[in-house]
Structures are given as C-alpha cells and as structure tokens.
Amino acid sequence: MDSKLARNQKEDASLATNTASANAADALETTALYRQVCEILEAARGRAARSVNSEMVRAYWQIGHAIVEGEQAGKERADYGTRLVESLAAQMKAERVKGFSKNNLWYMRQFYLAFPEKLHSLRGELSWTHYRLLLKVEKPAARGWYGTEAATQNWSTREIERQINSLFWERAALSTRKAEMPATTQRQPAPFRKPNKTQTKAPATRRPATPLMC
Length: 214
Hints:
Layout: H1 2-73, H2 80-94, H3 102-114, H4 128-134, H5 140-152, H6 157-165, H7 168-180, H8 183-186, H9 197-200
Helix pairs in contact: 1-2, 1-3, 4-6
C-alpha cells in the first residue's frame, strides 16, 4: 500500500514537472509570438504614418497651387493675394479646420512656388516640417541637394536644419570649385621683399686721372 502511494506521488510529481515545463515553453513561445506581432504592427503603423504624411504633403502642394491660381485670377487688384489668404484662413477657422492658419497657408503657397510642376518628384520620405525647412534655402540647386540627402540619408528635421544652418552645401561647392581651379590660378603671389641695399647701390665711378702738364 505504501509503495503504491509512493509510486502515485512520484507520478504526480513527474506530471507536475512536465506540466510546468510545458507551461514555461508555452510562455516563451507566446512571448516570442507577441514580440513578432508587435513588430508587424509597428512596421504597419510606420508605413501608414509615412503614407498619410506623403499624402498630406501632396495636399499642401495642391493647396498652394490653388492659392496661386486664385491670386492670378485677381492679380489686377492690389494686395489681392494677401486678402485672399487671410479670408481663406478665417473661413477655415470658422469651420474649425485646424492647421490652416494664415502663416501655414502662406507656407503652402511658397511650397508650390519653390517646387512648381514637380508634384511627382516630391520625396515621400520627407515630412511637411522637412519641406518647410527647405523653403528657407534660396538657391534651387542647394534646396534640391538638401532634399535629396535628407531623403536618402534619413535625416531628421533637426539634422537637416543643422546642415542648412552650417551652410554645408555652400562650403562643399566652394571646395569643389577650388579643387577644379587650374594650379596657376590657385598660386598665391610671392610676398613683397624689400630690396637689399647692396644690390641696389649703384657702382662707384672712377674719375679719370688728370694728365700732367709739361
């Protein structure tokens, strides 16, 4: 009887151990699966955010285009563009449409003017904040370079602002021009040196001897 009881207890302990091991394995598998699901969701949210951002950037470009066309329709009237934007901003505010203040609408107008007829070439990797920073760059070549680098190098808005403020493109362009200059144009003129007195002193002239009179 005692041996049977001991055998039952041993079997119960073994079963409990196996159950605990199975539960631990299940927990590990669940944790791994949970992490995988989270990664999938995070990637999907990132793609969705980039897609929404890209569509909003395109919408801002189109709004800028519409504003410019509206200005051109009434360009014979003084300050028509200013009053048009102010009126539009006021109506958007009255309709409780956020994000379309007078300043933002002017940015959208400037956005279109800086990238006219280039809706297809707008970089989906860049946010509206990226483009607002690019609008501060006056030279189209520099603006295009900063935009391309920001997209390909995955620059944050802080990084692209730092690069613009440091005049990185301008300094790089200047270095390139110097490297392409012929050696004769890069050579600096020799410094001025004061002539040596021994070199500039005229040689002494000897007077001819006076002939003796007889």
